[in-house]
């Protein structure tokens, strides 16, 4: 074997391992999730008597809703959230850099609660700072208000019995929550003293035509936010934070990194909690639902922010998790690093196809065949997991023929990924949901 052939074989093995690891992790997560007895779609599952919760057993909750120009759908969200709250809970709505009637509508809703003698409270916070835009700044503004309230309560209640630590739940302004969602999150957080993430899914509205790209985007979101977290939980792993349906013990807010205009601040907080020894726990019975944008341009903007943010985190957080694991080896940090290495589904499939073609060509030319075999095994694991997930959780309006559109769907998203190399998204842009 010549030196050049040895170098090429080493390169082929490196490429095979680099793609095999995320493929096997992805397939294993799907297969582990699907080993459960019940195969109902997550939003259709009706809790059994054993799954029922006692709302009297949970601590009080502070709910935060960050909102930027959300006047059209805000009342729907406020109705669903307040219906899930209990006496003693408090709702904070942050109208962040709004130039519409978001703050006015929220204030009117708060006044209606007072006039109806509701047993929950509501505070509307307005924030104006055009230099520091983004959801993480709005949430930090709400956290500061909570800290001030907590200090005032501590001063007022000196000498009285200590109250259980309140739970903080974050819900996006375009989401609907189930009536038991806040109860389930609060009970789990109170029991574990760790952050919790609800089952947060997105669907396309019934008013739009259900095309293959829409079906595949909805399925990919279900795999990412329901199937994979469920599988990771089965082997002792934590869960990513998804941005809505997040819950924290109030004391844990101090461990979250400060705002920096990140595209996916919620995913970044996931790793803050892991390295602090409090990995996020999945709570699949708590449900939270939003709808995809109806316009293609708005949907592209949303996907661009999500997937560029994910790729940025791979570069910044995987090394951080590895350093944390070296200092203090934990299963949570190891599994989180592996999970983060799984690229967005379309990019993972395209990358695997390109590398597989390269490995097959090299084997045909007489170079090492081992890398191709490793790739084939990894692709089989991922393919079986993905196929099984589709058979159980394909979108309700999807047809079998839509499966064959997967290659075209992945190719259509290639410009999104190539733009990450030349023009990565840096600034948070609100998704137009009209």
UniProtKB/TrEMBL annotation:
The keyword Transmembrane helix appears for this protein: yes
Domain of life, per lineage: Bacteria
Classification via Pfam families: Glyco_tranf_2_3 (PF13641)
Keyword Metal-binding: no
SUPFAM superfamilies in UniProt: Nucleotide-diphospho-sugar transferases
Keywords: Membrane, Transmembrane, Transmembrane helix
Transmembrane segments: 12-35, 331-360, 372-393
InterPro entries tied to this protein: Glycosyltransferase_2, Nucleotide-diphossugar_trans
Protein name in the entry: N-glycosyltransferase
Source organism per UniProt: Novipirellula caenicola
């Amino acid at each position: 074997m010549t030196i050049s052939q040895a170098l090429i074989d080493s390169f082929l093995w490196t490429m095979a391992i680099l793609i095999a690891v995320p493929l096997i992790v992805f397939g294993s997560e799907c297969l582990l999730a699907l080993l459960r007895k019940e195969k109902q779609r997550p939003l259709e599952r009706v809790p059994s008597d054993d799954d029922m919760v006692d709302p009297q057993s949970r601590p009080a909750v502070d709910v935060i809703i960050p909102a930027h120009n959300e006047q059209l759908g805000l009342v729907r969200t406020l109705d669903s959230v307040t219906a899930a709250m209990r006496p003693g809970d408090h709702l904070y709505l942050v109208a962040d850099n709004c130039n519409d009637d978001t703050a006015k509508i929220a204030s009117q809703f708060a006044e209606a609660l007072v006039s109806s003698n509701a047993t929950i409270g509501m505070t509307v916070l307005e924030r104006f700072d055009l230099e520091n835009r983004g959801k993480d700044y709005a949430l930090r503004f709400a956290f500061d208000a909570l800290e001030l309230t907590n200090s005032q309560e501590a001063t007022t209640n000196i000498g009285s019995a200590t109250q259980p630590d309140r739970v903080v739940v974050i819900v996006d302004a375009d989401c609907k929550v189930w009536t038991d969602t806040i109860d389930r999150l609060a009970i789990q957080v109170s029991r574990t003293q760790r952050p919790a993430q609800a089952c947060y899914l997105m669907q396309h509205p019934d008013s739009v035509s259900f095309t293959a790209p829409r079906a595949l985007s909805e399925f990919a979101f279900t795999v990412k936010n329901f199937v994979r977290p469920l599988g990771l939980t089965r082997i002792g792993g934590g869960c990513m934070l998804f941005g809505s349906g997040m819950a924290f013990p109030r004391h844990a807010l101090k461990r979250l990194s400060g705002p920096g205009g990140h595209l996916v601040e919620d995913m970044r907080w996931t790793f803050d909690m892991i390295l602090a020894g409090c990995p996020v726990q999945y709570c699949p019975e708590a449900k939270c639902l939003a709808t995809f944008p109806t316009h293609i341009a708005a949907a592209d903007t949303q996907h661009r922010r999500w997937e560029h943010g994910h790729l940025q985190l791979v570069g910044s957080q995987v090394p951080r998790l590895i350093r944390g694991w070296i200092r203090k080896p934990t299963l949570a940090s190891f599994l989180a690093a592996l999970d983060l290495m799984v690229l967005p589904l379309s990019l993972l499939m395209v990358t695997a196809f390109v590398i597989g073609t390269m490995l097959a060509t090299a084997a045909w030319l007489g170079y090492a065949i081992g890398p191709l075999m490793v790739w084939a095994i990894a692709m089989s694991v991922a393919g079986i997991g993905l196929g099984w997930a589709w058979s159980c959780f394909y979108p309700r309006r999807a047809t079998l023929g839509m499966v064959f559109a997967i290659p075209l769907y992945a190719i259509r998203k290639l410009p999104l990924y190539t733009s990450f190399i030349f023009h990565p998204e840096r600034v948070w842009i609100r998704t137009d949901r009209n």
